[in-house]
Amino acid sequence: MSFIRGFLITVQFFTAIPINKEFPMDPEHLKKAVQAFPLLGLLQGIIYSLLLYCFVEFSPFTHLASAFILWLMTIFLTGGIHLDGWMDTSDAYFSYRDQEKRLSIMKDPRTGAFGVLSVIVLLSMRLFFIYEMTRNPMTSTYLLIAAIPFFSKMVMGCLLLSVKSAKQEGLGYLFQKAADVKSLFIYLFYLVGFILLVILLIHEFVQTGIMLLAAVISLYFWRRKSMKWFGGMTGDVLGAAVEGTEVGLWMTLWLLHYFVTA
């Protein structure tokens, strides 16, 4: 029961899905919430895949319209919470100041020019990759789209529990304090289960392996750069890592679409 509550806490915090119920925010439930991060990502991915499938197969809309609707869903379903972290982190990084000043910039509620420019580039890239794939989607495409937020939320959980917090406050610190690295062992079961599902449904272990490799590379990148740029992890950096990982996975899927499944 506590695991279900933990999952619903992640839905409340990281999506715009309305859940009008208060849950206890004690360490046990927050720990379960961290363990449920990949399941939240899988839920998002299933929604994306089903939406795209319905519009491509059963609607009179063009491929561009279908891609645009899916692109909007990737923004609205999360309520823009990770995009906010991307913009704040971009403002802080491109200030080229020391770590302490960068952390203070991230706390500023105002958005600077670099934050605006970086989110325009990020969202433009995502729309391009989505549109390119909707022109000739295959069965494997839909399943691999579901893998994108699944892997990105897994990266978020790994970063949260393997990189020290840069400040003793905020949403990221709240979750980090409640859980520990041992909480990540359940991620292995999720991963093995997902890979087995892919093999059974589409027999595409290679493509899934390439997507997983891209996620691992992103995890390594954000682990190193969060310490170098900010002295540790914050909620904004976690949001930026999720968005950065997802656009990298969209790009990977786009490349697979052209050079493997074409």
Low-confidence stretches: none
Number of DSSP E strands: 0
Look at the helices and sheets and give the structural class. mainly alpha
Rg on CA atoms, Å: 18 Å
How large is the share of residues in beta strands? under 5%
Cα(first) to Cα(last) distance is 45 Å
SSE succession:
HHHHHHHHHHHH
The domain count comes to 1
As a percent range, the share of helical residues equals: over 70%
Broad shape: globular
Tally the helices. 12
Explain this structure:
This protein is mainly α. The chain has one domain. The chain has helices spanning 2-14, 27-35, 37-58, 63-76, 81-93, 99-107, 113-134, 139-162, 171-178, 185-202, 205-230, 235-259. Helix 7 runs parallel beside helix 12 (235-259) and helix 8 packs parallel to helix 11 (205-230). It is globular. The mean pLDDT is 90.
Provide the descriptors you would attach to this structure in a database record.
262 residues, mainly alpha, 12 helices, 77% helix, globular
SSE layout:
Blueprint: H1 2-14, H2 27-35, H3 37-58, H4 63-76, H5 81-93, H6 99-107, H7 113-134, H8 139-162, H9 171-178, H10 185-202, H11 205-230, H12 235-259
Compact description:
Pathway: Cofactor biosynthesis; adenosylcobalamin biosynthesis; adenosylcobalamin from cob(II)yrinate a,c-diamide: step 7/7. With 262 residues, the protein is mainly alpha-helical. It has helices at 2-14, 27-35, 37-58, 63-76, 81-93, 99-107, 113-134, 139-162, 171-178, 185-202, 205-230, 235-259.
